[in-house]
Model the fold of this input.
Amino acid sequence: MLGIIVGVVALAALGFWLKLRAPDIPYETLEAKFADSASRFVDLPGGIRMHYRDDGDANAPLLVLLHGYGDSFTTWEGWVSTLKDQYHVLSLDFPGHGLTRAPQDCRLNGDQLADLVDVFAARLKLPKFAVAGNSMGGAVAWRLAVRHPDRLDALVLVDAAAFPPSGPPPPLPWAFKILQYSWGRALLRGIDNAPLIDQSLKMNVYDPALITPALVARWAELQRAPGHRDILMAGEFRGLSAATTEIVSKIAVPTLVLHGESDVLIEPASSQRLAEAIPGARLILYPKVGHLPQLEIPQQSAADVAAFLKAHLH
Done:
């Protein structure tokens, strides 16, 4: 009987995989759909061809934007439209994300991603800049401020991965639950993850109506770039909540900390601890906002960033 049950389960799993399996989408196809005249590419060590979007006046103060896990440069569209008239804005794609090309065995943790941003800045000969990061990108941003302080003149942390939860871990979307297991990572490497992306994003925002089919499709298509799913499933992007008061208290640049009060993925208390630990940091909590303020309230959050940068960069 047990053998029959195992066989039925195995057949069901195989049928599920066959129904949802989805091949890679060539980079050329994705670039034709999602790149435009503002898209730029730069070759970096390790076989990485980093994509970034370049908006605004090249002579204006510089702001570099870093997205979260599974996301891309597109998450910042609302901010870019508001800020590009006042600032020179670069929106990066990390390896395994967006339109950045990288070998499928590319493995970069939080510190290494911060170092990659430093290499990116050196390759483009960027002047000092403000950096803003959401979630995983926020973890990279505060690490950049610690590891390469001479690069920055301001720091903006948006629902940043930082301190471990103060209480029981929050409920995880199914995608993150599956990622905890080797079989789950192997499964997700070969299927269309749109249903899981839809469920995860709707958990991460206060108003699920913001998560449109077009938004989910964009996430899913960009994750199907060659090598992306291997990089995303490898596990290097997890474990980013490793901040300590001793580490982040070394940050010396003006810092703005933003956080949605309804964020169920990263608790607001983490950002409160950041604001208390970083000298002179200012904290803004947004009611009825989840994990993605740049998507949920783009105009308001961008206006808060603009006011902060105006006070510290002009």
Q: What stands out?
A: Residues 6-18 have pLDDT under 50 and may be disordered. The two ends are 74 Å apart (CA to CA). The longest helix spans residues 2-20. The beta strands are 39-44, 48-55, 62-66, 88-92, 129-134, 152-158, 255-260, 282-286.
